């Protein structure tokens, strides 16, 4: 089954692309011009031939894809985190249809970057939803769905690696079923959940007075590495937290201001207060000077009593 892939991710897309290449089903890979240099290099590393890769602009998207479907006699089009909506005129061209792999559970997490929002919200399950593409984004009938448990302390990067490999396995099963008479898709049940937009600066910034240790850990994991860590400030400079761990303190101080460093040394690194008198251990930070450990900063003059804000 000749398949055209539209993608804007290496981690999430390449395992499926490699599967299609190995089984002789890969027709073409279409990538957006804004990500071309990065994705061309990533695809070359897994031996995808240059003549299989097509770079397109948003303006040229419809012409590029329709020409490829016709010339390759492609039976299926599959999008993997593609940033642009396909025009309706494309959706009926492949004989097996146009499908979108959404790397989150629908309809609860429709919209941009469900991986971030599921991690940030502390969900126990992530997953992949493959649905028929329609005029409405992330709203088409569901062809198949696979839940993937979120592991404790799992970061954005780790979860995406797991999703990418799970997608290849799921697509292998799906492609076999598509060889038979068309399988019915299940219309999505309307959900009261919000349509999530791409996280902005406010979403990526730590709110020390409001977020508990658990919520802080969720935010930091959701931003690593995709957004470079959770944003805060210290000594009037921006600092990003890349790894924080839960910690219980015996006889914790009362009414400590959230963001305060309550303990710092070369063994434990930095221990800081969060909302509701909870605490985190900060192990990796990014400063202008580079990526530094809490242990190293304890030897560079950072002191207990100073405050993140």
TrEMBL record:
Top-level lineage group: Bacteria
UniProt keyword annotation of Transmembrane present: no
Q: Where are the transmembrane segments?
A: none
GO molecular function terms listed in the Swiss-Prot or TrEMBL record: methionyl-tRNA formyltransferase activity
The Formyl transferase N-terminal domain extends over 28-158
Identify the keywords attached in UniProt to this record, alphabetized. Transferase
Annotated InterPro entries: Formyl_transf_N, Formyl_transf_N_sf, Formyl_transferase-like_C_sf
Annotated Gene Ontology cellular component terms: cytosol
Q: Which PANTHER family match?
A: METHIONYL-TRNA FORMYLTRANSFERASE, METHIONYL-TRNA FORMYLTRANSFERASE, MITOCHONDRIAL
Name it.
Methionyl-tRNA formyltransferase/UDP-4-amino-4-deoxy-L-arabinose formyltransferase / UDP-glucuronic acid dehydrogenase (UDP-4-keto-hexauronic acid decarboxylating)
Query: Which source organism does the UniProt entry give?
Result: Filimonas lacunae
């Amino acid at each position: 089954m000749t398949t055209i892939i539209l993608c804007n991710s290496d981690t999430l897309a390449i395992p499926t692309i490699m599967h299609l290449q190995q089984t002789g089903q890969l027709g073409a890979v279409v990538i957006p011009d804004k990500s071309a240099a990065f994705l061309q290099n990533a695809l070359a590393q897994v031996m995808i031939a240059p003549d299989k890769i097509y770079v397109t602009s948003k303006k040229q998207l419809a012409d590029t894809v329709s020409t490829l479907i016709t010339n390759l006699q492609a039976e299926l089009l599959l999008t993997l985190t593609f940033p642009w909506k396909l025009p309706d005129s494309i959706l009926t061209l492949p004989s097996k249809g146009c499908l979108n792999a959404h790397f989150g559970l629908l309809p609860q997490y429709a919209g941009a970057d469900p991986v971030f929002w599921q991690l940030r919200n502390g969900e126990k399950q992530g997953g992949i939803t493959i649905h028929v593409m329609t005029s409405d984004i992330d709203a088409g009938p569901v062809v198949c769905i696979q839940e993937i448990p979120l592991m404790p302390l799992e970061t954005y990067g780790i979860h995406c690696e797991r999703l990418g490999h799970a997608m290849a396995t799921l697509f292998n099963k799906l492609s076999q079923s598509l060889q038979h008479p068309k399988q019915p898709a299940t219309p999505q049940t309307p959900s009261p959940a919000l349509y999530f937009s791409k996280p902005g600066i406010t979403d990526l910034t730590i709110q020390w007075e409001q977020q508990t240790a658990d919520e802080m850990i969720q935010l930091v994991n959701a931003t690593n590495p995709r957004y470079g860590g959770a944003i805060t400030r210290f000594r009037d400079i921006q600092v990003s937290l890349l790894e924080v761990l839960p910690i219980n303190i015996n006889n914790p101080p009362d009414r400590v201001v959230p963001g305060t460093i309550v303990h710092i040394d070369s063994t434990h690194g930095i221990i800081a207060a969060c909302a509701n008198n909870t605490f985190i251990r900060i192990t990796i930070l990014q400063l202008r000077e580079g990526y530094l450990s809490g242990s190293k900063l304890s030897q560079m003059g950072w002191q207990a009593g100073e405050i993140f804000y």
